[in-house]
Amino acid sequence: MKILFVYSDISGTEHYGAKKYYSGLGSISAVLKEAGHETQLLYLQREPDRDEFLAQVAEASPDLLAFSTTTHQYPYIERYAAYVKAARPDLLILVGGVHPTLAPEEVIANPTFDIVAIGEGEYPLRDLAERLESGQDYRDIDNLWIRYDGEIVRNKLRPLIADLDELPYVDRELFGF
Known about the structure:
The chain is of the alpha/beta class. A seven-stranded mixed beta sheet has the order 2-1-3-4-5-6-7, with helices on both faces. α4 links the parallel β3 and β4. α2 runs parallel beside α7 and α3 crosses α4. It starts with a strand and ends in a 23-residue tail after the last strand.
């Protein structure tokens, strides 16, 4: 399965001087790759226009589009997710990160998002990719809130990963490092 991550850091280099590495996405990507999935990152350092963004998504040809966002970047993510949903209503759109974890009700209220990942995403995204690839039901995966047939399924949080050494080494290549 092909997963395209979108990480918004619009104006970040102006404030911080360089592209950032986000370890959460690196860890999730490593778990997905270990399970045989393909990951790619679209790192937004500036605001692409609608057509440019949609062309980048089309070029990646993902099976799942996964946005990661902070509160500061969330308005950009809403806009870009809406562009994709209008152009490709069949493509599942997931959003996770700090903002969805802290404000899941706000995020799931936006009908653009099919899935909201809350808390740690390594194993929930791996499980989601595996179930999507095999055509299995995915509505019961802990840490995921899922919009399905007009309803919202709010799954419980799974325990935190107790032994971080069980995770594969983070995927720095995702960010080009």
